[in-house]
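Um, can you check?
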Amino acid sequence: MFKNRSFIAGLGVGIIAGAILLQLMQIGDESQQKLSNGFNDGEPKLYTQAELDEKLAEERDKASQNAVTTEKPAAQKPEESPVVKASEPPADSGKNDDKKAEEAAAEKPAAAAVKRQVRITGGMNLTDTAELLSEQKLISDKDAFIKAMKNKPVRAGYFIFEGNPTVADIIRILTSQPLTKSEFEQQMKG
């Protein structure tokens, strides 16, 4: 029927292969867009340590001002204050002191192990990553970090650094699997 049957068959196979490759490229482009833009959808603002300290100080000031305003009406109405009966023995304060001491001891290691959160977005290069880590006070020498990270991929995603990690620890964390958004939020709460 056709003179060049093998030519027509080859052309058909080429068109099919081209359509499949075009679809794969479009899927790859969409996933790259989701990776670079997907972290911005409805996520909380990430703060540097200095910004977080400022916010905490503001919240403490607001709380202390609210405590002062609530104490004034209580001082004006002494009849509403609780009355302790002399016949009742006082509560065992030794147990309360022990609990308070345990809570204080538990809070000290938590305060010492500061969690720093870092989000590396898609498209950030090694220099941008070094700048971000320097802002978080995780590294002091950007050039040494860049030299140490040479030939290692920068992964996009969420990372948490506890305490004062070494450069080797930072590189190990950054080249490992990043946390998902839900894992990141769960670790920051817990």
Observations:
- The first strand starts at residue 115 and ends at 120.
